[in-house]
Design a protein that fits this description.
Blueprint: E1 2-8, H1 15-27, E2 32-37, H2 52-63, E3 69-71, H3 84-94, E4 100-106, H4 107-111, H5 119-125, E5 127-132, H6 147-150, E6 154-156, E7 161-163, E8 169-174, H7 182-191, H8 201-209
Helix pairs in contact: 2-8, 3-5
This protein binds adenosine-5'-triphosphate (ATP) and magnesium ion.
C-alpha cells in the first residue's frame, strides 16, 4: 500500500492542490492520497484562517467522487501545534507492515524542511514527494539540507529518486503547475470577484453560503 499524505492549511483547497495530487497519484502509483488540513499550522499566523470545520467541509466537497482521494481530521484530534511527524506516526501505526507513506509538499514548503519539528526523524519515517515548479527542478539536496544529511542520500537515476539507505526517499516531481493559491482565492472572494475554474463549484457554493473570506 502506497499512501500519499498531503498536508496543508487548505484555506481553502483549490484546483492547484487537486490537480497536482491527481498527477502524483499516477506518477508514483499511490493507492490513496489523504488530504490532511492542519488544525494549528506551526508556520502560519492564525488570523484569516477559517475554522478547521469549514476547511474540512470544503475538502470533503472537493474530493467527493474521486476514489483515490480522501481526507483526515487527525490533526484536529491532537492538542497543540500540528506537527507532521505526529501525523506520519499516526498513519504508520494504523497501517500494516507493507505501508509506505509518501509525504507530499510543494517546493516552497520543502525548502524550509529543516525548520520543521523533528525533521531528521521525519525524513527517516516517510518518503517525501516534492512538487516542483518549472525552473525549480534539479536544485539538488545540498541547497536544502545540511551537508551531513544531504551526503547520506544517493541519487538513483533509474527511479529518479534520492535514496537514504536507512531512511526515506525523496522524489522531486514536476506536476502541471496551476498558478493558483489559497491567498488569491481569498482575495478574490473578498473583492466579490469570480472564482470559477480556480476551485470546484461545490467549494465556491460553500464559501458563498457560509460567507467565508468576506
Ligand atoms: P496560501 O496562499 O494561503 O499560502 P496555498 O495555496 O499555498 O495557500 P497551502 O494550504 O498553504 O495552500 O498548501 C498546501 C500544500 O500545497 C503546500 O505544500 C503547497 O506548496 C502546495 N501548493 C499550494 N499551491 C499549489 C499549486 N498551485 N499547485 C501545487 N501545489 C500547491
Ligand atoms: Mg502556501
Amino acid at each position: 500500500m502506497n499512501l500519499g499524505l498531503f498536508g496543508g492549511t487548505f484555506n481553502p483547497v483549490h484546483l492547484g492542490h487537486l490537480r497536482a495530487a491527481q498527477e502524483l497519484a499516477e506518477l508514483l502509483k499511490l493507492d490513496r492520497i489523504v488530504f490532511i488540513p492542519a488544525a494549528t499550522p506551526p508556520h502560519k499566523t492564525p488570523s484569516g484562517i477559517v475554522s478547521f470545520e469549514h476547511r474540512l467541509q470544503m475538502l470533503q466537497l472537493a474530493v467527493a467522487g474521486n476514489d483515490v482521494f480522501s481526507l483526515s481530521d487527525v490533526e484536529n484530534r491532537r492538542p497543540g501545534k500540528s506537527y507532521s511527524i505526529d501525523t506520519v506516526r499516526h498513519f504508520r501505526n494504523a497501517g500494516d507492515s507493507g505501508l509506505e507513506c509518501f509525504f507530499i509538499t510543494g517546493q516552497d514548503a520543502f525548502d524550509a524542511i529543516t525548520t520543521w519539528h523533528d525533521w531528521k526523524n521525519l525524513l527517516r519515517l516517510c518518503h517525501f514527494v516534492v512538487m516542483t515548479r518549472p525552473g525549480y527542478e534539479n536544485r539538488g539536496l545540498h541547497q536544502i539540507l545540511p551537508p551531513d544529511v544531504a551526503g547520506r542520500y544517493v541519487y538513483d537515476a533509474a527511479g529518479d529518486v534520492f535514496q537514504e539507505p536507512h531512511g526515506g526517499s525523496i522524489f522531486f516531481r514536476q506536476t502541471t503547475f496551476l498558478d493558483i493559491s489559497s491567498s488569491e482565492v481569498r482575495k478574490r472572494m473578498q473583492q466579490g470577484r469570480s472564482l470559477r475554474y480556480l476551485t470546484p463549484d461545490s467549494v465556491i457554493r460553500y464559501m458563498e453560503a457560509n460567507r467565508l473570506y468576506r
